[in-house]
Amino acid sequence: xxxxxxxxxxxxxxRTLWLINELGLDHELKIYAFGRALRDPAYLAVSPLGRVxxxxxxxxxxxxxxxxxxxxxETYDTQHLLWRAPGENDRxxxxxxxxxxxxxxxxxxxxxxxxxxxxxxxxxxxxVWKLESRRLEKSIAVVEDxxxxxxxxxxxxxxxxxxxxxxxxxxxxxxxxxxxxxxxxRYYQNLSARPAFQKSMPAPDAKDRIYTKSRxxx
Length: 218
Ligand SMILES: N[C@@H](CCC(=O)N[C@@H](CS)C(=O)NCC(=O)O)C(=O)O
Fold this sequence. Notes:
By secondary structure, this protein is of the alpha+beta class. Helices cover 49% and strands 7% of the residues. The protein has two domains: 74 residues, Glutaredoxin (3-Layer(aba) Sandwich); 110 residues, Glutathione S-transferase Yfyf (Class Pi), Chain A, domain 2. It contains eight helices and four strands. Strands 2-1-3-4 form a four-stranded mixed beta sheet, covered by helices on one side. Helix 4 packs parallel to helix 6. Bound molecules: glutathione (GSH). The site of glutathione has 10 residues, from loops.
């Protein structure tokens, strides 16, 4: 087996795992507790910042999720189901939405830091919470607008871009009220019902979950 994915439950590596599962690729999963385990020298030797995802494929090691998504699609999606190859009509939009996932996710990461990573409530910032929640909502509103006219991010249908954005929404719903986004809510429901999504979720009794609540409020 040549593909190894370094993963923490429901971290950004979930978008890589979901893509691997959609593509049906044989792989080995190495699961870490979110925190000090990622600073182990053995892990830093493959992922120098000690973050997930990190993907090994034979001699190749990659540690940026957008790049990993592009690599997996161009290497393994021979039928172009999730990939939009250079020259295809919606290739530029595919690239835009694939990487827009990170625009949404950085706000989720700040809120995760506030709600979970900063253990001492006295060190949390109400200003950061308000600012990041608002910026997260605005980044989702852009998707809401697009989805009022189509089912997926691309008119041509489901693609790896929906996996990136779908994962971002999976975390965003822990921090913002989705009732203000009816199209996004319908889209997320549809994406999260996919067998490959469900396979990428931790088992209900899994240890070392980052998120243990269904909603975090500032
Ligand atoms: N832009 C990077 C961000 C990777 C990242 O920050 N991952 C988080 C998990 S969602 C992480 O590993 N954090 C651990 C830490 O910062 O110690 C990517 O998309 O791969």
